[in-house]
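Question: Send over one sample?
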Amino acid sequence: MLNLFTVGLASDCKLVYNTFAMPKAPAKDHEEKNDLHEVKTLLTWKALGRPYKKRKREFYLMIVFITICFCVIFYLFKEWMLMLTTISVAFLSIVLYSIPPHEVEHKITTQGVITGDHAYLYKELYDFWFDEKDGNKVLYIRTYAFIPGVLSLLLGDTDEKTVQNTLVKHIPYRELVEKTFMDKASNWLAKNFPLES
């Protein structure tokens, strides 16, 4: 029962409360509203948090060699901050490539997509497509927000068609996605200057 209070000031300066009782809404209407807003999981799968490929020793040696070359050049120009930045980026890339990612649970629900600890409503998502990276099938979902921009969800053993049929009811599917300048540049560098053979 919902109570409304009105406060009045009596002649002896004490507060007086008048209570008016309002009837409760019928229970049936309340249950119907809950059914309309109930979040249901449509599809769940587990996969690695990011694409991972075990690298050979020569890959890491090539990173160290390139880092040393850049550091020598920056040392000659006395660019200490660029030297530190280059060493930091090299260290980060060695760590990311050598440590395998943990497994993450992905869910597609009636309200949006949940990946790990982050949830995104369908109204925040723009479109989706599939691609392959380092031998892994990846679901890419573009967001309206600048950050994160694009969600990358590894499919693992999940069927691509099942995911597509579930998501296409809520956001558009792109069969062909135009490559950005950064995508083209990174593909060109990986093709022409591989860090391992």
Remarks:
- The helical segments are 27-36, 57-76, 80-98, 160-167, 181-192.
- DSSP finds five helices and nine strands in the chain.
- The radius of gyration is 28 Å.
- The first strand starts at residue 2 and ends at 9.
